[in-house]
Automatic annotation (TrEMBL):
InterPro entries: 2-IPM_HCS-like (IPR050073), 2-isopropylmalate_synth_dimer (IPR013709), AIPM/Hcit_synth_CS (IPR002034), Aldolase_TIM (IPR013785), LeuA/HCS_post-cat (IPR054691), LeuA_allosteric_dom_sf (IPR036230), LeuA_bact_synth (IPR005671), PYR_CT (IPR000891). This is 2-isopropylmalate synthase. The gene is leuA. The keyword Metal-binding applies. HAMAP family: LeuA_type1 (MF_01025). Catalyzes the condensation of the acetyl group of acetyl-CoA with 3-methyl-2-oxobutanoate (2-ketoisovalerate) to form 3-carboxy-3-hydroxy-4-methylpentanoate (2-isopropylmalate). One of its GO terms (biological process) is L-leucine biosynthetic process. The lineage of its organism: Bacteria, Bacillati, Bacillota, Clostridia, Eubacteriales. It comes from Syntrophothermus lipocalidus (strain DSM 12680 / TGB-C1).
Length: 517
């Protein structure tokens, strides 16, 4: 294998899920993991198994079902965490136990309340313990960039002696700057005598907006594994954005002379899926995957691009899976054109999924003159990436105005049987949500509501993303329609379906636990 290879470690499902307000269920995590495997990342950190039964189940399911990448699970440097981690990971084709402990004095003194000697001992013991189960063990020195360098070098050397195959040096609080971080990695490479027996990794946070720059500086100085998340999501200001690192290495290959083994065509789709399932909207001017990343607004730029794209484009959008099609779809389009378009867009649908998507497409085409690629993508996300739905919107009627009490009548099918009710609220959306609560018997508390126009124009599809708390847990729901009240109700029902899905799964788990006793 080329020694220019950079390994991509994706932590969207672990650190990415630590973004405030993000909570993915097992099915959603599995879908993201499957897409990450299609993208071709080297490692998927599927979760933190001891953190919750849901996290444990997600790691276990991904370990058993997702083939290709190494599947990692995060564990504190304790036997209990490592036991749970291994239990979840052991079904994987290539499992990796990822154990960590902080090494900076500030974390030792205030958080862990342990001495340097105690932490060194605990780190070594954790690696040795993990090694009994799994040959691939990653050790992370949390807050490495703020740790005493001599002490950190000792920890790194000893964990490698204990069997760590990968040593990760995180900039946990995003405090580093590129030159400094590059020198830090160089010092580790020079001072730790056995460093070549392990792979050196970095994990940068974006508190100063430098996570990608710091990761690239680390690559120049010897790091061969880069950790990050799709769309740069994660704790606080997020993690290094993987798509940005991948495309920087590609675009500046002559400079870095490094290779990654990803399937570039899947980058955009992965970004859209993560955004859709986490509810974390990608800012339009975000590098690589933002809506405006390849848009040219100014006349001089447009003129340049029309004459020769490279005047203002340093990357081809097609390379990352953004494509422009000549097939214009509308109400006169048939199944063949629709299915051809989906193929062009990279969607592989089963016959049943295609039927559902085609039905929604025809409904939309009746309301909208031209159905754009963005509209189609929004419908696919709504129909095909949705979890199994016990509740489905059957019909919606609402009335509101300046002198009316907003009223809604809603029909919701529960397992195919339609129930209807009516109610009032502070507005038509609120009224409809109350009615949905009454029909489903679930009490949703709306925490956040976002409305985006999928395309421009008066007939644009509206996409609504809601965050709803049900029984103490937060669920993201998403709905699209040309009518924003309908999109809102679809989004709300989508979130309740996820809550219901969890409720049924928890009931099943507790009854099988009882049977096991
Ligand atoms: C930098 C990072 O991203 S680290 C990963 C952060 N992710 C998360 O924390 C998400 C999941 N976390 C959780 O669900 C919970 O925090 C759990 C289940 C892990 C632990 O929950 P609790 O047992 O209730 O402990 P709590 O979170 O309050 O405190 C953490 C404890 O772990 C200890 N700890 C923290 N890191 C480590 C470590 N790497 N190794 C060993 N112990 C550690 C702390 O010192 C504290 O111990 P104490 O109770 O003796 O003071
Ligand atoms: C647990 C480690 C890898 C981490 O997320 C960090 O230090 O930011
Ligand atoms: Mg982190």
């Amino acid at each position: 294998m080329s020694n220019n290879r950079i390994y991509i470690f994706d932590t969207t499902l672990r650190d990415g899920e630590q973004s405030p307000g993000v909570s993915l269920n097992v099915q959603e995590k599995l879908e993201i993991a499957q897409q990450l495997a299609r993208l071709g990342v080297d490692v998927i950190e599927a979760g933190f198994p001891i953190a919750s039964p849901g996290d444990f189940q997600a790691v276990k399911t991904i370990a058993e079902r997702v083939k290709g990448p190494v599947i990692a699970g995060l564990c504190r440097a304790t036997r209990e965490d490592i036991d749970a981690g291994w239990e979840a990971l052991k079904g994987a084709e290539s499992p990796r136990i990822h154990t960590f402990i902080a090494t900076s004095d500030i974390h030792l003194k205030y958080k862990l309340q342990r001495s340097r000697e105690e932490v060194l001992e605990q780190a070594v013991a954790a690696v040795k313990y993990a090694k009994q189960f799994c040959s691939d063990v990653e050790f992370s020195a949390e807050d490495a960039s703020r740790s005493d360098l001599d002490y950190l070098c000792t920890v790194v050397e000893k964990v490698i002696d204990a069997g760590a195959t990968v040593v990760n040096l995180p900039d946990t609080v995003g405090y580093a700057i590129p030159d400094e971080f590059g020198r830090f990695i160089k010092a580790i490479m020079e001072r730790v005598p056995n460093i070549h027996r392990a792979r050196l990794s970095v994990h940068c946070h974006n508190d100063l907006g430098l996570a990608v720059a710091n990761s690239l500086a680390a690559i120049l100085n010897g790091a061969t594994q880069i950790e990050g998340a799709i769309n740069g999501i994660g704790e606080r200001a997020g993690n290094a954005s993987l798509e940005e690192i991948i495309m920087a290495l590609y675009t500046k290959k002559a400079f870095y002379q490094k290779e990654v083994a990803v399937n570039y065509q899947e980058i955009y789709r992965t970004s859209r899926l993560v955004s859709s399932l986490t509810g974390m909207v990608v800012q339009p001017n975000k590098a690589i995957v933002g809506k405006n990343a390849f848009a040219h607004e100014a006349g001089i730029h447009q003129d340049g691009v029309l004459k020769e794209r490279t005047t203002y484009e340093i990357m081809k959008p097609e390379l990352i899976g953004i494509y422009k099609s000549n097939l214009v779809l509308g109400k006169h389009s048939g199944r063949h054109a629709f299915s051809e378009k989906l193929k062009e867009m990279g969607f592989e649908l089963s016959g049943e999924e295609l039927d559902k998507a085609f039905r929604r497409f025809k409904e939309l085409a009746d309301k909208k003159k031209e159905v754009t690629d963005d509209d189609i993508e929004a419908l696919i996300k709504d129909e095909v990436w949705a979890i199994p739905e016990r509740f489905r919107l059957n019909y919606l009627y609402f009335a509101s105005g300046t002198r009316l009490i907003p009223t809604a009548t809603v029909g919701v099918a529960i397992e195919g049987v339609v129930f209807e009710d009516a109610g009032t609220g502070d507005g038509p959306v609120d009224a409809a949500f109350h009615v949905v609560d009454k029909i489903t018997g679930l009490q949703g508390e709306l925490l956040e509501y976002k409305l985006n126009a999928v395309t421009g124009g008066k007939d644009a599809l509206g996409e609504v993303i809601v965050r709803v708390r049900v029984n103490g847990r937060t669920y993201v729901g998403r709905g699209v329609s040309t009518d924003i009240v309908e999109a809102s109700v679809r989004a709300y029902i989508n979130a309740l379906n996820k809550a219901d899905f969890d409720r049924i799964r928890n009931n099943n788990n507790s009854s099988s636990d009882q049977r096991g006793q």
